[in-house]
């Protein structure tokens, strides 16, 4: 493994490589998580030997960023595998979650509970039409789940457990 770069040096290298990518592919690739992930790994690398190892591996995986979309290369697959391992490590060892995940999961749970609640209300109140109960339950459940997810994400952010 090559010497581990500092965050600023790594970001500058990524920006230079990203400039050579076609604009459409760069936009579709969703690379915006890289700066946050790199910064998090670098900050944790002094206290966690696994984070130091993953910080180096992330740098290695992005060495060929400008070749990710060429036919017949394995760089993109290697990168995806590394990011998956890093995310698992951060979740298991440090209880860190990516931004938006908690919000999305809670909104989905709210939708499901809202639909069930709408069906129950429609059966209990015969005047209330079934479609109306389901739609109202879905909307209220989604909103409730979204607000609860925002609240939980804000607590995680304040605890520095969200990236």
TrEMBL record:
Record's keyword terms, sorted: Membrane, Transmembrane, Transmembrane helix
Residue intervals passing through the bilayer: 101-125, 131-149
Protein name, UniProt field: Glycine zipper family protein
